[in-house]
Amino acid sequence: MKLRGWPCQLQPGRRVAHGSKLYRRPQNLTCKSSYFAIPENQLEDWLSSKGGLISGVQLQVTGSSVKQRSVIAMEPLEQGRLLISVPLHCQLRYDNIEDPLLLDLLEKVPRGSKNTTTGAWSFKQALSLLWHLSRGTTSPLHPYLATLPGLSPGTSQPRQGMLLGDDVVHELQYTPLIEDVLNQKYWWERFYSDELEPCIQDTARNPFAGKLVSLQLLGWALSVTKSRSFGLSKSGVHTMPAYIDMIDHDADGCNCEVSSDDSGSLNLIATRQIEKGSPLRLKYGVHDNRNLVLSYGFVVPSNPEEKFEFEFDPKIMLDLCDQATLQSGGSFLLAPWQEELLQQLKLISGPSQQVSDCSSTTSSKSSTASTAPPSQPHWQPQPSEQQAGSSSTAVAGTANSAVKASYVYFKAPNKEKQQPVDPRLLAAVRIMMLHGSDQEQVAHKDTVGTVGAVGAVAGRTQNMATVYGLTLEQLGDWEVPVGRQHEIGVLRVLVLLCTALYQSMGSTIQKDKSYFMELESEVQGLLAPEGLVHLGCLGGPADLWDSVRTERLGRQDMVLDTLLAVSFRLGIKTCLERALKAIVQRRKELLDLL
């Protein structure tokens, strides 16, 4: 049984290979005191004693104050070799819990965004982690817990979107991500105040051995479990496997994969020949930087999966069409057949959403998301749906959900994917720019291979329709324009749209680069030996519960948070800029042909 794409945590400060470049996250907080016995040294013995397997590989810990952890091939490894096997009882899983008090609390976690009848797994996993942590050395997973970020000396605290300081969130300058971050913060705080805090104050209901859980400790547990869990595709359960979760990750050059067997063991298998001394690397999934910030707390420069997502607003789009054709305000109207096609593209909801009135002018969307409480928590990137830009919309399946917003995107072209525009957005603009005499030339007829019904046309219900002989799918194809002059106008609209989106951000790329360099310089000063701040557990393995650092350390945390935010917004603006350049170049080529 293969695993769904839920990667484990990229260790802070570890190199993340991406293509030919290596990205290193800035180091987080560190210890300047000497360590007690490093827990990683005990992990292999513990795993082997519990029936696990470690073959031909070894965990290496380098660095003095700052840990660099990686799993290295100690000999040549052939393809198909079983390298690591982690038994079920050496994994942290919420379905392994038998304590009735904790099981009762697990029933009260917020519902997940994908399946509204099931509790969000991140909360279940976080509570299970805290349950084991509260048991101290009596927990069967104690040696594994001692290696987690914030517990093992010298390892960094998690720094995901939900943990960003409230005074830093606006530095992201990107509404979809800001909404996601505020959504996660809201449900983290609400679950704590509504369910967890009353539970732990009642000794008869407290499942954590009478220990108190702070809001910050819950946040730490949520961030650790979100970033280090693997999702089992068959059972739908998520698990944190000892040892395997410290393997480096490479989006393109992974050399091993994880699968589970009928016994519940998680197995790491070499997918190709691995040379002695080479680090093991897993593919951690296909994620844009928005998802990486939410789940892992880092960004990948020049991420090929990066998208600039935004809500499709038909009124603003009509106004841009007006500007592109130098029409006076309000003259650009959609015909019924155009509205039907936009409905078919799922960009407008139907008759209740009027788009004919374009009296509104193009305005910059606010960079600050609404703070209205969401109906459901959205915790993890969803396969395909979130990659298509639906993650920041209202969560489906709730009584309070409004019509789901339609998100489209621009994307930087690369060698494999040359189209810089969401096919739905491109199709929509091409449809909207068919006006005046163009509308009279539109042919409606039955055609094999079209997307589906578009409704009543000329008093008759048509099952299929084309525009100039093009299907809706073809209308979204970058290489299939309706006509040369028409396409020049379409590209003009897209240029105006890109420009408006860029101007809606709070700063330019040039200013962000300068600010980024200032922050990097300050980080180096903060992380110099004289500036290092205690992070991990120094008192001994029995003190894990009290050793988790949850307080924020003023300027140091603020700078690191801001550095992450500026890194993200630089990437998203660069993505939009590259898409704009591709659109401008295409328009120039068409103009040269006139």
Helix content: 25-40%
Under CATH, the topology of the largest domain is which?
set domain protein methyltransferase, domain 1
* Annotated CATH architecture of the largest domain: Alpha-Beta Complex
Number of domains: 2
- Going by CATH, the homologous superfamily of the largest domain would be set domain protein methyltransferase, domain 1
Please work out how many helical segments DSSP would assign.
16
Q: Order of strands across the biggest sheet?
A: 3-6-12-11
Secondary-structure class: alpha+beta
Radius of gyration: 26 Å
Shape: globular
Strand content: 5-15%
Euclidean distance between termini CA atoms: 57 Å
Sheet of most strands: 4 strands, antiparallel
Mean pLDDT: 77
Q: Unreliable runs, pLDDT <50, ≥5 residues?
A: 1-37, 352-373, 377-403, 436-465, 529-542
GO molecular function: protein-lysine N-methyltransferase activity
Biased composition (Low complexity): 359-395
Protein name: SET domain-containing protein
Region (Disordered): 352-395
